[in-house]
Each structure stands twice: as structure tokens, then as C-alpha cells.
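User: Hey, my collaborator sent me this sequence without any context and asked if I could get a structure. I don't really work with proteins. Can you help?
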Amino acid sequence: MRICLIGPAYPFRGGLAHHTTLLYRHLRQRHHVAFYTFKRQYPQWLFPGETDRDTSHAPLKEEGIDNLLDSCNPLTWWRVGQHVRRRRADLTIMPWWTSFWTPQFFTIATVIKRRPATPILFICHNVVDHESHSFSRLCTRAVLSKGDYFLVHSEGDGNRLRALVPGARITHAFHPIYDVFSAGTMPKAEAKQRLGLQGEIILFFGFIRPYKGILDLLHAMPLILRDRNITLLVVGEFWGDKGAFDRLIKELKLETAVRVIAEYVPNEEVGLYFSAADLVVLPYRSGTGSGIMQIACGLEKPVVATRVGSLPEVVEDGRTGFLVNPGDPEALARAVVRYFAEAKEAEFVENIRKTKERFSWERLVQLIEAAVTTVPRSAL
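Assistant: No problem. I've predicted the 3D structure and written it out in C-alpha cell form, which is a compact way to encode the shape of the chain:
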């Protein structure tokens, strides 16, 4: 197939840029792919972090990517759509994750859908924003109504999509593993020494936002510390007010039990923190898929996670990790204590090795191929 892919990539950072870049890498092994990405993504005043640029010394990037799209220049939106039309693509793939992209993606999709139309597949990382409101849902409906095929990461997102776009052709897909960070891994003892850590370590990693449940994990820590001498390693950039986090640490007297590295982690250092961890904890209160979950899987780290989004479909409860209900610090604490008390690491790691191939990028490409061949193009 001739495929056009539109979405974030280097020089921009984060899981979505990694996802589209790795998808491009694997799609082009089987298809002719043109990848259009951004030359400006967010206006700086709108971005919640320090910068949206990737400062890694070892950035994830591929050759042949066109940096054409400027989020603030409507002329570039039209130009990207025209590029797709000139290529006479068989399929255009676009990620969807936030209603900020409504004007840009609506314009591109409108140009692409002029006769003869190119089918569009939306990969819905989030059907609606994590902190959504009625206007954002209207924006989402306007864009996604332009789609012909959809990939979602969870049953809940599939239901939300059907409510917005009745009759949508939906494929329930998985979030592939991120094993590209394995180059930075090292023996656990060495990683702990480099970080000045000792004993049992649990890791919370990634952008720190309210829906990810970090405060629930802090509330669980005093219960964990009754039974185990554990250090919580919190690594990631805070998106929003850090004050509630700092106040709760002081209130619960966790200053010596919580180590915080409040910054975005460059690619070459990701493996260091996962190498140091005995267990990764994802206490999310809501969500769809999780790139952090798939980094843990790719680096063969067991997890304690909540039953939200696609996490119960990725974690095999009692085999590759433990699952608990969201918003329940006591359940989180019991699961963490059980993992160490029953010495589950070797068993869980072996089970991850046996099963992680089902989350490969090759399988995702095959799912996309199957999804877009279920309906003849003449029917679109």
C-alpha cells in the first residue's frame, strides 16, 4: 500500500512521538510510507512542561520524514492535505489524543476527503481528553467523523467512540512495547549504585498528572512501610501544581522514603531508572493505554497497576504483575507488599518474556492491514 502517516516525531519528545516514529519504522518495512510531522507543535505558552523539544543525546528518529506541519499556520495544514492527495495514497494514518488538534486535523482530513477521497485511519490514543469537557467532545466528534477506520486501545474507548461516531469501524488494538530503551539498561545493583539507592525500589515513571494517581500511591506508602523498607522513586515532569504532592509527602512524613527526580528523562537515561526498579507501579485513576506500561513490558519489569483502560488487558494478574481497583491505596499497598513478600520477581519476569511478543510492532502493522481490508475501498 501507499500510506501517508501524519503525527508527531523528532525533534519533538514524548510517547506519542515515539509511537508514530516506531510505527513508521515498521510500516515502511512492508509498504511505501510518507511521514509528515511538525516543524512547530505547540505554542510555548500552551505547553504545560518546560519544552516540547527532545533534548536526548540519542533521540529516536528515522530518515525520510518531512517536517511540514505548523500548528499555528493554517496554510501548512492545507499543504499537508495536498501532499497526501498528490501521492494518491491508499491510506492515511493519523493519531488522535487531544482536541487541541481539532482545527489542524479537521482541515487536513477535509482536504484529504475531497474526491477522489483517501481513506483515513485514526489511531485513538485517547478518544476524549483526560480532562475533557463538552466542547472538547464536540471538537472530537467533528474530527473523528472524517475517519473511515479506527484503532482504540481499550473497550471503554471503543464505547466512547461509538457514542460520538455511530457506526464507526473500530479495531481493538494494543499499544506495542517500547524496547528501544534497552540500550540504556544495566545490572540492577549498578543502577541502584549510580542513583545512590539501596534496598527495594518501586518506580513511578512519566509525566505526572492528576489522573495518574500519584497521590493514591503516596497514601499507600505508610501502609507499605509497615511491612517493607521500600523506597519510592518518582521520575518525571510535573504537568500542573506540584504543591499537593510536596504537601502530602510532608504530611505523611515520607521525606526519607520518596526520591523525586522532577524532570523529563532523555532517552538514554530511561533504562537507568527501570534497571534500578524492582517493581513499576501504575496507580492510574483513569486512562486508555499506557506507554509506561509498555516500556516496563519491553524492559521485562513486573508491575502493580490499576484496572483502568487497557491495563487489565496487558497485565496478567498474578503472572506478570498484580491488578487492583483504582483509587484504593490500601489495595495498592497490599499488592506491593505481596510482590516482595512472595518473591515474585523471577516468576513474573519469565512470564513477561514468554508473552511480550504479542505486543510487537509487527503484529500492530498486521492489525492495521487487516482493519483496512475488511471493507472494500469502493464502499467508502
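In plain terms: The chain has two domains: 2-176+360-379, 182-359. You can pass these C-alpha cells on to your collaborator as they are.
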